[in-house]
Every structure is written in C-alpha cells, then in structure tokens.
Amino acid sequence: MDPRAGRHSTGWFDLSAGVAGDMLLAALVDAGGSLERMQAAVDAVIPGTVRLVAHEVVRAGMRALKVDVELLVEDQPHRRWSEIRDRVTGAELDDPVRSLVLAAFGSLAQAEARVHGVGVDDVHFHEVGAWDSIADVVGVCAGVVELDLTDISTSRISLGSGAVRAAHGTMPVPVPAVLELCRGWQVTSGGDGELATPTGLALVTALAARQEPLPALRVHTTGVGAGSKDISGRPNVVRLVVGDTEAVATETGMAAPGDGSLERRDMVVLEANVDDLDPRVWPSVVDDLLAAGAADAWLTPMVMKRGRPAQLLSVLADPQQATQLLDLVFRSTSTIGVRETSVTRWALARGWHAVLLDGHRIGVKVAHREGRIVHATPEFRDVEAAALALSRPVRDVLEAAVAAAAAAHLTPGADVPAALDDHA
Ligand SMILES: O=C([S-])c1cc(C(=O)S)c[n+]([C@@H]2O[C@H](COP(=O)(O)O)[C@@H](O)[C@H]2O)c1
Ligand code: NI
C-alpha cells in the first residue's frame, strides 16, 4: 500500500536541468518543508554525523535555495546496502518516511546490483552510501511526508552527457546506475556533464507516480533547489510546484475526485498514422488492444501526404500499461512511430440494471452523477441477441428495450436504482 495514501497535495518536479539528492532537498525546504524536521529524521538514522545548512544562492541569475550537508565526522563511504537497510529499519522514523526511504534506497541497491552483476545483499555503495547521500534520501522523504505530497509527478528528466570521475573510475554520463534507474522513464540528455545522479534518480523514481507536463492545479507554493555548480545560460536547479487538483476541478464545474460521481484519472493516448496496413487487419488490431487492457481503441479515417487514404489509430490507456500496448501497436500494425500524449479522463460513475423483453434479459448501462441518472443505454449486443432469438428486427427490439428501460424508471434525471451491478 502506498504509505502516503489519502487526499492531500500534488507535487510536480521540473527536472529539465537534472536532479540530485541535495537539489530535491533544497526544493522541498524552499517550498516550505522544515529543515529542522529533516535534520531530526536524518539524526534518527545517522546520529551526530551531518548538519543540514540552508542558504540562498544564485544560479544563472536566478535565486535558489542550496542545502549543504556538512560532515561532522570523517566518513568512509563504502557501506553495504544491508547496513543502511538495518539502520533505517531500526531508526525512530515515522512509518511513511521509513517506507519511502527503504523504497528509494532499495531501488538504488537493485540498480547497483544489476550494474555490477552481484546479488542485492552483496552491494557495496561508494559515494551513494556516504553520510551525505543517506542524509539526502532521508531528508527528502521526510520533506515529502511533511508537505503531504500524496501525488507526485515529474517532467522529463535531463541526464547530461560526457564523462565523470567517481570511485569506480571514469564513467560515461549517464553513469551506469542512473541508466539502470531510468527504465520506463522519459529522459533526455539535456546538457553537458552529470546532470542526474543515482541518488536523485532513485528518489524521483521511487516518489513519483508518473511523468507529465505541469498538470492543471491551483498552486499553493513553489520551491527552487540549487545544484552545486552554477552553469551559465541555464539555472542548475530542480523546481517544485505544490498545489491541489481538487480546486481546479471544482472551478471548472466538475465534481471533485472522490465524490462518487465523477472519476478523474490521468491517462495516456497512443496514436499512429498508418497508410500501409491491409485494411482487413484493422478490426483485429482494435480487438487485440482492447483485450490487452486498453480503456478504448478506435480508428479515424484520414488522408495523408500524396493523397494516401490512411487510418489514425488511437489507444486510451493507463500510463502503467502504455509500454505493453505500445509494443502491441508496433507488433500488430505496420507503423514505425507512435505518439504518446498525457490526458485527463473524467468519467461518470456507472453500473448495470437488467430489464426483461419477452423473456430475454437486456442489460442497461446506467451512468449517474450525484444520485441522478445521466444516461441509461440498453446494451446493444443484448439487443442483437434478443432480436435473433425472437426473430424480430434489431431496430424494433432496440426501441422496445428503451421503452422497457423507461418503464423501469431508467431515464435521465431519475433517481439511481438502489442496487446496480458492476457487470452487464
Ligand atoms: O556509489 C556508488 S556505488 C556509485 C555508483 C555509480 C554507478 O553509476 S555504478 C556512480 N556513482 C557516482 O557517485 C557520485 C555521487 O552520486 P550521488 O548519487 O551520491 O550524488 C556520482 O558522480 C555518481 O555518478 C556512485
Ligand atoms: Ni556502482
């Protein structure tokens, strides 16, 4: 279960200039997180080792907050993952903070294990196991819990380019652990040098549910967290926007999510323009996409360059299913490119009620809002089956089904029946 379950704030991180643990830490403090509380959480895991100090800096002409993690004792950063895990497990931390820290460090350990070809319990961290990196992870998780960021998303992540010197020697950027952590996430090079570090990547991929452009929200507060380097021409910062989507929904006349009438869901639409697929194949493509879990799939006829007739294939899906459906689009059509767009879907609550027509059961889909029916639609496949069984025209049976639904008070504006079924 998500340890941050509940309805609170939405946080969006702008990672277009990269990401590191200390940048996230500073962005959270700048957005209102308490440095003292972060320090207390860090002290619970690694007492007496570091002090968090915040101060304002300028990055490419822009104000930002920098959080320095000052070492109070000498460090020997060669820690095993199991040692860090035991410290976190045994520390006096709030449970949600502990869960997030273990998730972030756990994925860092998995990435290191894969990169170096060792078991996860044999992972030896170098820099990322140092006191300052542990402080970054614990402080960021404490800040996220304190600011109640129950729904986090990020922009595309800039990783950088070139090479970097580390305990492992000179490594190409993105460094191996970063690349491992990027699986399934949208990234771009975005500039020179190491813009995203393993700790930064482990944190955002553990904390964020998805990537998207800045979502529609009412902004409560923002934070700008500085990285160490000041690069001319581009502020080396992570930006955090904190807000709530409920306010936006209410202002646009929509019921707030969770009122039982309207569901707000972040989804994606995959699209491809295809002019060279045998048209007889299309029905099975759409059927296969629906069977594979697409929320909807449809075709729009169009004319492409050089007057070629073509189809626009559109697939609506949960973001988590996008990769799997993308593979299916590539496998089952002739396209060589697919566009992905983030969309918000608003859906009415719905359920099923049955009516009888000359002894034949017809399901009626009832969409409702705030206790009133908005639409009541007889299921067309049931109508076709009844028409076949009764040897009557489909058109007549459809009319009779609509009349039977009305007789059962399934009409727009009527009260929603007490019991609706989940299925047809
Ligand atoms: O500490 C370890 S094991 C480590 C692994 C890797 C690999 O890509 S493998 C890279 N690094 C480099 O360490 C520094 C510090 O990273 P932080 O995440 O603590 O900021 C950075 O340059 C990494 O590329 C360390
Ligand atoms: Ni490594």
From TrEMBL:
<keyword id="KW-0533">Nickel</keyword>
<dbReference type="Pfam" id="PF01969">
    <property type="entry name" value="Ni_insertion"/>
</dbReference>
<keyword id="KW-0456">Lyase</keyword>
<protein>
    <recommendedName>
        <fullName>Pyridinium-3,5-bisthiocarboxylic acid mononucleotide nickel insertion protein</fullName>
        <ecNumber>4.99.1.12</ecNumber>
    </recommendedName>
</protein>
<dbReference type="InterPro" id="IPR002822">
    <property type="entry name" value="Ni_insertion"/>
</dbReference>
<comment type="function">
    <text>Involved in the biosynthesis of a nickel-pincer cofactor ((SCS)Ni(II) pincer complex). Binds Ni(2+), and functions in nickel delivery to pyridinium-3,5-bisthiocarboxylic acid mononucleotide (P2TMN), to form the mature cofactor. Is thus probably required for the activation of nickel-pincer cofactor-dependent enzymes.</text>
</comment>
<comment type="similarity">
    <text>Belongs to the LarC family.</text>
</comment>
